[in-house]
Design a protein that fits this description.
The protein is of the alpha/beta class. It has two domains: about 60 residues, Signal recognition particle alu RNA binding heterodimer, srp9/1 (2-Layer Sandwich), CATH 3.30.720.120; about 70 residues, 2,3-Dihydroxybiphenyl 1,2-Dioxygenase, domain 1, CATH 3.10.180. The strands form two sheets. A four-stranded mixed sheet has the order 1-4-3-2, with helices on one face. The protein has a four-stranded mixed sheet with strand order 5-8-7-6.
C-alpha cells in the first residue's frame, strides 16, 4: 500500500488552491473547476468542491468542519514561509517554534479553518529522519 493523497472538501476551490499554491510554491493541476491537485514528491493535496461529495456519498463530507486533522508540509525554511504568509493568513495558531522532537514548526489555519503545519527539521536527529 502507498499513501498518495489527502483531499480537502471546500465550497471555494479557487480560494483554497490560491492559498496552497502561495504557501507551498507548488502549481496546482486542475482537472475541472471542482477539482485540483497540488502534487509533491511525497504526496498529493487534492482540493475538491462540495459538489464532488455527491459522487462518493452525499453528505459524507462537510467543508470547513475539520477539527482533528493537521496537514503537514516539510519545507526548507519555515521562518521564510511565515514571512511569506504573514500578510495573507488571518489565523496563525502558533508562530515558528522549535518542538522537543527537533522540528521548527509553524501552525496556522487555511482559509477554511483547516490546521496546517509547516516544519523544518533543525536538530541532527530530526534532519536524519527526513534525509533521503
Amino acid at each position: 500500500m502507498e499513501f498518495v493523497s489527502i483531499r480537502i472538501i471546500t465550497g471555494d476551490v479557487a480560494r483554497l488552491v490560491d492559498f496552497y499554491e502561495r504557501a507551498t510554491g507548488v502549481q496546482a493541476h486542475w482537472s475541472t473547476e471542482d477539482f485540483a491537485e497540488l502534487r509533491t514528491a511525497g504526496a498529493t493535496l487534492a482540493i475538491g468542491h462540495t459538489r464532488t461529495v455527491a459522487l462518493f456519498a452525499p453528505g459524507s463530507a462537510r467543508p470547513a468542519d475539520n477539527n482533528t486533522v493537521i496537514t503537514e508540509f516539510l519545507v526548507t525554511d519555515v521562518d521564510g514561509v511565515h514571512r511569506n504568509l504573514a500578510d495573507s493568513v488571518t489565523d496563525f495558531v502558533a508562530g515558528p517554534t522549535t518542538m522537543p522532537w527537533g522540528n521548527r514548526s509553524l501552525l496556522l489555519r487555511d482559509p477554511d479553518g483547516n490546521l496546517v503545519n509547516f516544519f523544518t527539521p533543525v536538530t541532527p536527529a530530526a534532519i536524519a529522519k527526513f534525509t533521503r
